[in-house]
Structure prediction request, 236 residues.
Amino acid sequence: MPRSSLNPVIAPSVLAGDLAHLGAESDAVIAAGADWIHFDVMDHHFVPNLTFGPPVVQALKKHLDAQRPGTPIDVHLMVKPPDALIEGFANAGVDSITFHPEASDHIDRSLRRARDAGCAAGLAFNPATPLEWLKYVLDLVDIVVIMSVNPGFAGQKFIPSMPAKIAEARGILDSWRASGGHPIRLQVDGGIKTDNIATVAEAGADTFVAGSAIFGQADYSAAIADLKQRINTPDA
Prediction:
């Protein structure tokens, strides 16, 4: 099974952190070796939960620019429709925005909106959502997200059938690259732990969203180092 040629990225999901100390938690995981900060944005409509809006992310962006300039902020929109919030989060200064294809009436337009605002753009696929949508817009996609849980809540268990879907996505992205297309990251979000991250990497993922696997641990540095080591150690 082919692995990604892109360097691995660990993106802690702040939804699993101490939200009363969002700036300090973000500082701590970046200092501990994380690569991105990941925001799960939910609207209590597309998914049954309500989380962050652009002002919260804008405040964290200002904090990070002062404390840790250059820290990428990755936003996953679990909202319907996504377009107005794409604009809002782009204006808040985030680096990448992904949304669900079934949440947009015009996927091409929504991807262009994110890119025109200076963000990397991507599509997120629920566990049972087919990847068929992807092939028509690969030229506008910078990130593909495979949800390995049904979205809406932190702390869910990884769905065992998802490595096959990750591998399917890897094949699509590798074929695109081989035909002269730009590199596209393959992110996996949901239930990532030390006991499955190697399998996810072997299936072809290169970007790993982790919540309680990091924020639920006493030592963030040790937790992130363990995840990175397992990414680089194929399953027997």
Observations:
- Residues 10 and 208 are 5 Å apart (CA to CA).
- The chain has a mean pLDDT of 94.
- Residues 162-178 form the longest helix (17 residues).
